[in-house]
Write a structure and sequence with these properties.
heterodimer, A: about 110 residues, five-stranded antiparallel beta sheet, 11 strands, globular, B: about 110 residues, mainly beta, four-stranded antiparallel beta sheet
Chain lengths: ~110, ~110
Amino acid sequence: QKEVEQNSGPLSVPEGAIASLNCTYSDRGSQSFFWYRQYSGKSPELIMFIYSNGDKEDGRFTAQLNKASQYVSLLIRDSQPSDSATYLCAVRYGGSQGNLIFGKGTKLSVKP
Amino acid sequence: GAGVSQSPSNKVTEKGKDVELRCDPISGHTALYWYRQSLGQGLEFLIYFQGNSAPDKSGLPSDRFSAERTGGSVSTLTIQRTQQEDSAVYLCASSPPGAREQYFGPGTRLTVT
């Protein structure tokens, strides 16, 4: 069974700190990795995606992928209260299109 | 541009009734996905369309669930003889040709009483 695991949290960080969100996946055949942000009562919003080992940066967000360890993470620098949300990790196993397998999400709370 | 749209935004139905949920993908997006999210649960894949074909229906939980897509655009998810366990938010997502990322609509909250 293909699984995506995330710590449910809540993860609490002070405003301005770095938030580190982690995700592990079970199948080495995974090829594409996604981070979505979901505010309470809203639908998931794509933040970043990464396909290759290493880091990918976009503004305050950095995605990190380590395929050997089957681990993907999201760093949020200079965290803001508006970053408070649930962060969903999603994985695609093979192919450029097809369904995503989602983790249950980590709830992040950024305290002013 | 316009994002993925879904209707209705909320639907309350009695157990045993049939419901239809609609998804309008982003214009030009060839791939369309249906997921559902139950309270406190992760997103659960239901079905995937590429154009009007459904190469992956593996997530449909029972034969009460069906979906179709016409004209490579609008999709309808139908749930027959609804049960209380069908209560969830039903989310639609779409992808442009060849792209890996998916963009979600606002969802339809279904409540079966």
